[in-house]
Amino acid sequence: MSTSVLDMSMSLDGYIADPDDYLGGEDGERLHHWSAPNGQSGQLSAPARQFADEIIATGAVLAGRRTAELMDHWGGDHHGVPIFVSSHRPPGPAARWGYPLVTYVADGIESAMAQAKAAAGDRNVLVHGAYTAQRALAARVLDEVQIHQIPVLLGGGHRLFDVLPSQIELEIIQVIDTPEATHIRYRVRR
Fold this sequence. Notes:
Shape: globular
Number of strands: 10
Order of helices and strands: EEHEHEHEHEHEEEE
Distance between the termini: 17 Å
């Protein structure tokens, strides 16, 4: 059975991007430094490799329109799996004609998640985007949250959990601590 997993890097003060939608720092990628290859060896750390393998093993992607457009729909190919975009507006030309793996879903987050899970089969659905995560939590269709907590304070920008409908209980199911980040995986309690 498919599990939906939000996977996000986040600053200690709760930001997933700076005010200009970059990931922080002078190079615009501070929140993803943890996943870069180690120094001169060019190898990923064991945790970074584990998380990269998990992403590649997913069966579908669910993203909000803003995230999908910021990422140019991953060029229409997020490691070869279907990409579902929850949006009440029709897709732009690239998503309509140039990206056959991209499907816009206009009838709500529940429908978008159901379609993504059906496409994923027994593999996970990778969820991208703060607004989409908030809507999925409110609709009770998000199963797990994986946060890569980065030891930096961005001081402003876009927060991951800016608006939630109510208190949501989580259960910690895994913690991996590294010098670059603390990786915490939660199950959403229903």
